[in-house]
Amino acid sequence: MATGSTLTVTTCDGTQYEGFIHSLDTPSDLAVVKIKPRPTDTPIKWPVLQMSSNLNLRPGDWVVAIGSPFGLHNTVTAGVVSSGRRRNEEIGTGSDVRVEYIQTDCVVHEGSSGGPLINLDGEVVGINTTRAESEGISFAIRVDNAMDIIHQLHTQGRVVRPWLDCTLGCRMVTLTSQVRQQLRKQGPMTSIPPTSGGVIVTSVFPDSPCAKANLGEGDVIVAVFKAMGLKIQQPVRFTVKRSIPLDIDWDGRTRRWETQDVEVEVTPEEFDVELHGDGA
Questions:
Q1: For 21, 133, 170, 202, which has the most beta carbons within 10 A of its beta carbon?
Q2: How much is the average pLDDT of 201-206?
Q3: What's residue 233's pLDDT?
């Protein structure tokens, strides 16, 4: 499917309408569909569902999933919320790191995707999207995320994403003792600066603000200095620990560590999802 593709929209009473995709966002698997009225129809004002917020959604809350699995229209299943904030890295789906998911035990199958996840007040709290390989674990995009994406699709025809990690263009991981132990077992990042904390840069996107500031894989950010009310295109100063090669001695492993201050300029440039994917 792509923007402009045609489809058939079937209402709950079986009436069918011609529709087309107004706009589509592949990373979040969301789209805005426009329905064409039939010439013989009188104008209809369709009822709409009330959108809720995820602020008060808690584990244990009852929810209802509505969809059309296997072509069975208006199928309703019920369950409880296990988590209100699952990231795509946890569930292995989607390519937008900003989209978070609700985990429930509602039964969701192919054909349920796109249907609403509703609380007991009849308000939409999520949009059903996928399930785990086993029954009893399904996921829905949080409505707070979904409405932001839908608003951009409706008004701009696309979703504008800034560079990942505070518009800086790099991926970072908190340098815990467990992460340090794992990284030491890997090839290109076996040399870790001797610091007790900070975040380690695991990848840098080409032409990103971090790349322009010469931040590199393996650098550890140990401090950030910025003014209150940070504005776009304002430099942010990082204190970075990085390895500096010295003359190689007999064992070939001699290195020293140096602390440097690096300025990275916050930029409004758009993150190119098609070029960089999810950055993993």
A1: 170
A2: 81
A3: 44
